[in-house]
């Protein structure tokens, strides 16, 4: 049991774990003569999940519950390495991959997970009709061909165009394998009411909107990832998730032992200083940037307006308002730790409030913001005030994270700009660039901004076809320089994900990404 307070720096996080050594989970056991003192873990969600269909997960809370309910073919380990999930081994080139599927995995109703079941689920995920915004991130442009060979125990993937980041994409929670019963009842799947849909270690056994969700460990589950090092402790038999709890209240509940593991607000970290009964760990969770709606009819098709907004933004002031100064400054659309990120902030538009006021005076804009970026949406409120000081009026609608994701991704007529939280779980420049280039979200793509950005797409293609890292980074540098020159985004900071664990509980962050499937009860 590790009770030391550990805060990880941005430069160290990619190779770091949140708590103890990384592990292979085992089914709960006695754990010695006394065993764990509880079989339940309690944690909080930002808001109610928008769906229990992994392939259509949009918000942070959707990703978290998907990790409990669905297995992916590949998982992340420490130091950027991959380990098997439902796949025992794999081979990949920029244009194709072959995965060997383990023979002992089952759906929650006991149905054997065959290569055909895996292929069927991945084809559903990749189908444009599914309208998820992660398919292009995993498989690249065009439609993949995914086939199964049950006799050989393999799934084969052929890509329409080169996409060298396929294996990393297959670690995403959104690619979790949905069993046949779920694909046969998509309405029930979204509601979480089809237990046989689940391929992961838990089933959803209770769901009370706005109150609590309860996951129960499957007694027959065997497909735990084999990490390089074994996880301390045992999986909880029951995981209780409480949505919509104010993060300061969460901190109170952790201190009074009403909560076991959860995210807290940056301003509350000092409440745990010197308390050896808690471990506080920090990883950069998401890139935070101003994002403009550039669809026809939006005022921000005008590059002069985008530049003016960039000129009123101050990273330090935003950081103080949203994250108590604990966010990590960004030079571009991705974290400084991501391969091929820009090395400094020289490409950012310089602050110039006088020039901005000359452009923004008298203008009116619509903004939707999430309450999860800063206390009660303080990040969005900061931008509203910065624009007001420059003479513009901002009609701000603050909503919960799930509603924000739905509005920004499916109702573009409701907003002109937003503050985007981009959780780049793949850890590549392309993953974030596709938020502002390519197919718009309302048509099934990942592009929330809506403008095609053909030059950026060409740079991504060049990077994916590159034969070495230098050529790949050169293409990604061109793309990042282009979007900053055009002010397609205004980089702010990296949102810190600050996770508190009470003594006796742990969670891991393989490759710097918090994985709720690694929740464990320790001695």
Word description of this protein:
This protein has 523 residues and is α+β, with helices and mostly antiparallel strands. It has two domains: 10-277 and 503-521, D-Maltodextrin-Binding Protein, domain 2 (3-Layer(aba) Sandwich); 284-496, Dipeptide-binding Protein, Domain 3 (Dipeptide-binding Protein, domain 3, Roll), CATH 3.10.105.10. It is built from 16 helices and 19 strands. It has helices at residues 10-13, 60-69, 115-126, 135-139, 166-169, 180-183, 186-191, 247-255, 303-312, 315-323, 353-360, 378-389, 401-410, 429-433, 454-465, 469-485; strands at residues 40-45, 74-76, 82-84, 87-92, 96-101, 145-149, 154-158, 202-208, 212-217, 238-243, 261-264, 278-292, 328-329, 364-370, 393-399, 417-422, 489-502, 505-508, 515-521. Strands 11, 12, 13, 16 and 17 form a five-stranded antiparallel beta sheet that branches. Strands 1-10-9-8 form a four-stranded mixed beta sheet, with helices on one face. Helix 9 packs across helix 11 (353-360) and helix 10 (315-323) runs antiparallel to helix 12 (378-389). The longest helix is centred in the C-terminal third of the chain and has 17 residues, at 469-485. The chain is globular and about 65 Å long.
Give a short synopsis of this structure.
With 523 residues, the chain is of the alpha+beta class. Helix content is 26%, strand content 23%. It has two domains: 10-277 and 503-521, Periplasmic binding protein-like II (D-Maltodextrin-Binding Protein, domain 2); 284-496, Dipeptide-binding Protein, Domain 3 (Dipeptide-binding Protein, domain 3, Roll), CATH 3.10.105.10.
């Amino acid at each position: 049991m590790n009770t030391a307070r550990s805060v990880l720096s941005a430069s160290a996080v990619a190779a770091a774990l949140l708590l103890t050594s990384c592990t292979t989970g085992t089914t709960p056991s006695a754990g010695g003569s006394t065993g764990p003192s509880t079989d339940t873990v309690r944690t909080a969600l930002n808001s109610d999940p928008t769906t229990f269909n992994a392939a259509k997960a949009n918000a942070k809370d959707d990703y978290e519950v998907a990790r409990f309910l669905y297995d992916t073919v590949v998982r992340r380990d420490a130091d950027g390495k991959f380990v098997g999930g439902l796949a025992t081994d794999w081979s990949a080139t920029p244009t194709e991959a072959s995965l060997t599927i383990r023979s002992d995995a089952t759906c929650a109703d006991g149905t054997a997970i065959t290569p055909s079941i895996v292929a069927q689920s991945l084809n559903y995920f990749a189908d444009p009709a599914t309208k998820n915004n992660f398919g292009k991130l995993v498989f690249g442009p065009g439609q993949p061909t995914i086939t199964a060979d049950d006799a050989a125990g393999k799934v084969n993937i052929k890509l329409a165009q080169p996409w060298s980041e396929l294996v990393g994409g297959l670690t995403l929670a959104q690619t979790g394998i949905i069993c046949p019963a779920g694909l046969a009842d998509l309405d029930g799947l979204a509601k979480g009411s089809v237990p046989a849909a689940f391929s992961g270690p838990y089933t959803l056994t209770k769901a009370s909107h706005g109150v609590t969700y309860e996951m129960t460990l499957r007694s027959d589950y065997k497909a735990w990832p084999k990490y390089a090092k074994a996880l301390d402790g045992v999986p909880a038999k029951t995981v209780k998730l409480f949505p919509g709890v104010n993060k300061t209240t969460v901190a109170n509940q952790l201190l009074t032992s009403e909560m076991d593991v959860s995210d807290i607000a940056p301003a509350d970290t000092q409440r745990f200083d010197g308390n050896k009964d808690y471990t506080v760990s920090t990883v950069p969770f998401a890139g935070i940037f101003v994002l403009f709606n550039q669809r026809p009819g939006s005022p921000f098709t005008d590059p002069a307006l985008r530049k003016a907004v960039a000129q009123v933004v101050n990273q330090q002031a935003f950081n103080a308002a949203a994250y108590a100064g604990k966010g990590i400054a960004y030079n571009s659309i991705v974290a400084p730790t991501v391969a091929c990120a820009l090395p400094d902030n020289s490409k950012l538009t310089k602050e110039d409030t006088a020039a901005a006021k000359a452009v923004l005076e008298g203008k009116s804009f619509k903004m939707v913001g999430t309450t999860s970026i800063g206390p009660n949406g303080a990040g969005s409120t900061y931008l509203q005030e910065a624009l007001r000081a420059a003479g513009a009026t901002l009609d701000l609608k603050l909503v919960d994270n799930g509603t924000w994701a739905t509005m920004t991704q499916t109702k573009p007529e409701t907003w002109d700009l937003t503050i985007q939280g981009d959780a780049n779980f793949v850890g590549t420049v392309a993953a974030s660039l596709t938020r502002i280039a390519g197919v718009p979200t309302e048509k099934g793509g990942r592009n929330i901004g809506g403008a095609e950005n053909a030059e950026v797409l060409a740079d991504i293609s060049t990077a994916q076809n590159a034969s070495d890292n230098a050529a790949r980074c050169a293409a990604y540098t061109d793309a990042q320089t282009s979007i900053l020159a055009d002010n397609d985004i205004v980089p702010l900071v990296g949102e810190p994900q600050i996770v508190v664990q009470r003594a006796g509980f742990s969670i891991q962050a393989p490759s710097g990404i918090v994985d709720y499937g690694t929740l464990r009860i320790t001695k």
